[in-house]
């Protein structure tokens, strides 16, 4: 087995996921670049390697059972275990998303990737994570999934969103349930929000850089053994549910 810490980042070919991979790689970790498109994945791996990161490509579509199973097989073969899983891949599902007019396909797309995709990948990787000394799971959520923030007068709540924001609320709830089930293990699982970052996801309207957005994922990926589990955090600390 490799002595380096082994991480997998889903949706790591661009945006915040790429910067999470770069940040974990800068720690000297071996980083699996999970991405569904061969060319985009290989381009990201090459760029990370050129920056000195021990990066390797992991073909991975989080909505596809066979792809996720094959990804777990690839990591098992390469490293024999997984120390850190960052469930970063996400989609809005398509805009606009007003609840009164939303297309059910938009709802399904957001939930399939942002929630079921996370469950699919996490469960496939759990046998490998259980072999780690200090396993960590980070779910990239969003403060738009905070019902407290959405209902706080004057708070920045983003656009009306019937699919994307509730999919992150759903993801937060699922994160809590994982933490409950895994409470007696050494696995820490938390949700993090990167803040509003300029990426493809929002037409580059975000005000933070993807690198700034990656910081919370890196913090949650490197928690000490007595760190929190089942929580929701951003750079400022705890985010209300
Ligand atoms: N940007 C923000 O302001 C912001 C704020 C809060 C939370 N977040 C969250 O942060 C995470 C990263 O977002 P981002 O802003 O970096 O978005 P992005 O630039 O659009 O990147 C999304 C990544 O997810 C991948 N992806 C989508 N569907 C996938 C699938 N089925 N299988 C595998 N990979 C898939 C994309 O791959 P392709 O290139 O193949 O499409 C891409 O690599 C998301 O979970 C997002 O919800 C972002």
Keywords:
single chain; 241 residues; alpha/beta; eight-stranded mixed beta sheet; 8 strands; binds NADP nicotinamide-adenine-dinucleotide phosphate; CBR1-like; oxidoreductase; NAD(P)-bd_dom_sf; Dehydrogenase
Short description:
With 241 residues, this protein is α/β, with parallel strands linked by helices. It has seven helices and eight strands.
Strand order of the largest sheet: 3-2-1-4-5-6-7-8
DSSP helical segment count: 7
Question: Radius of gyration from the CA trace?
Answer: 17 Å
Q: How far is it from the N-terminal to the C-terminal residue, by CA?
A: 39 Å
Q: Which distinct ligands sit in these coordinates?
A: NADP nicotinamide-adenine-dinucleotide phosphate
Q: How many β-strand runs?
A: 8
Give the integer mean of the pLDDT values: 97
Helix content: 40-55%
Structural class: alpha/beta
Low-confidence stretches: none
Largest sheet: 8 strands, mixed
Would you write up a description of this structure?
- The chain has 241 residues and is an alpha/beta fold.
- 41% of the residues lie in helices and 15% in strands.
- It contains seven helices and eight strands, in the order βαβαβαβαβααβαββ.
- Strands 3-2-1-4-5-6-7-8 form an eight-stranded mixed sheet, with helices on both faces.
- Strand 2, helix 2 and strand 3 form a beta-alpha-beta unit.
- Helix 1 crosses helix 7 and helix 3 runs parallel beside helix 4.
- The longest helix has 26 residues.
- The chain starts with 5 loop residues before the first strand and ends with a strand.
- The model has no long low-confidence stretch (mean pLDDT 97).
- Bound molecules: NADP nicotinamide-adenine-dinucleotide phosphate (NAP).
- The site of NADP nicotinamide-adenine-dinucleotide phosphate (NAP) has 33 residues, from helix 1 and helix 4.
- Pfam families: adh_short.
- Keywords: NADP, Oxidoreductase.
- Belongs to the short-chain dehydrogenases/reductases (SDR) family.
């Amino acid at each position: 087995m490799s002595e380096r810490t082994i991480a997998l980042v889903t949706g790591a070919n661009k945006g915040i996921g790429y910067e999470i991979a770069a940040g974990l790689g800068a720690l000297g970790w071996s980083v699996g670049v999970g991405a569904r498109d061969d060319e985009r994945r290989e381009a990201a791996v090459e760029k990370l390697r050129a920056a000195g990161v021990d990066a390797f490509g992991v073909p991975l579509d989080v909505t596809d059972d066979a792809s996720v199973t094959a990804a777990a097989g690839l990591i098992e073969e390469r490293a024999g275990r997984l120390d850190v899983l960052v469930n970063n891949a996400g989609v809005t599902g398509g805009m606009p998303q007003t609840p009164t007019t939303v297309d059910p396909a938009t709802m399904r797309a957001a939930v399939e990737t942002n929630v079921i995709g996370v469950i699919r990948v996490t469960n496939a990787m759990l046998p490998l994570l259980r072999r780690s000394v200090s396993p960590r799971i980070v779910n990239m959520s969003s403060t738009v999934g905070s019902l407290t923030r959405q209902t706080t007068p004057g708070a920045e709540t983003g656009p009306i969103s019937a699919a994307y924001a509730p999919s992150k609320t759903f993801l937060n709830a699922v994160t809590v349930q994982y933490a409950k089930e895994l409470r007696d293990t050494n696995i820490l699982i938390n949700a993090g929000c990167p803040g509003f970052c300029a990426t493809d996801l929002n037409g580059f309207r975000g005000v933070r850089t993807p690198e700034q957005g990656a910081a919370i994922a890196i913090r949650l990926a490197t928690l000490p053994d007595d760190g929190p589990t089942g929580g929701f955090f951003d750079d400022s600390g705890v985010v209300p549910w």
